[in-house]
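Readers of this paper often ask what the protein records in our data store actually look like. Below, we set out a record of this kind in full and without editing:
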Amino acid sequence: MFGTPMIDFIEKTLKDAGALALSFMNNAIGEQKQDRSLVSEADLEVERFIISRLKTSFPNDNVIGEELGGGETQSSRRSRLWAIDPIDGTNPFLNGLPTWGVSVGVMEDGKPIAGGFHMPVVDEMFLALKGKGATRNGKALPNLQDMEINNQTVMLGPSSRKRFYKLDYPGKSIAYGSASAHVAYAATGGVIAALVDRPQIWDILGPLAVLQEVGGGAYHPDGHSLDLQKLVNGEKAEGPVFFGLKENAGKIFPLIEVYPRPKP
């Protein structure tokens, strides 16, 4: 379906990075970072591997990663930015669970142009190229459709959400422990939306490229679209963000009450 150098690069890099991460699984030891999230040697090694690949294949592009940042100073003269999360879902990874993966995405002028997300344990591969559609394990994903909410309608969201906002959602809410997985599965049509709290660019750029190719997007609870350009230096988005078809996410907007966050 694709057959372009950029998508071929993303797919091969995701597969190879996933295999490298798998080689650490069951032996990696995690440590808490300053923001209280987890990191392991596997995260660092996989990110170094991906950055090395990118610098060889796309030496003129900017790169930002979760663990190592941008490395060199980001150049405003370069219009393309790659964002990578070597292991999104470090907690599941360290605990031997399958719901983690490798995320790689690229944006130009503030818009995703290609990306993917790979879950090695379950062999899931999501890929997308702007204007050319999206695939899940090689099969084209259809456009998202309008959904109604009932007691069996699934929404994906973080397990920590009740600390920061109240959501009176009548359906099923599931947390996989990976923001990238949540956004990727929002592109399948199997869930009404995914809710990610204060995402950073590496959490979402790869799977957001997939979601946008099937008609979805990223929206704040007031309905306005997430501005990716505000996240290019590793900033967190303001508050919770919904990912999915806007018409579907809009049915959840009235159900959420955001609490003021304590100041650091």
Notes: Helices lie at 5-24, 41-57, 90-94, 179-186, 201-213, 246-249. The mean pLDDT is 90.
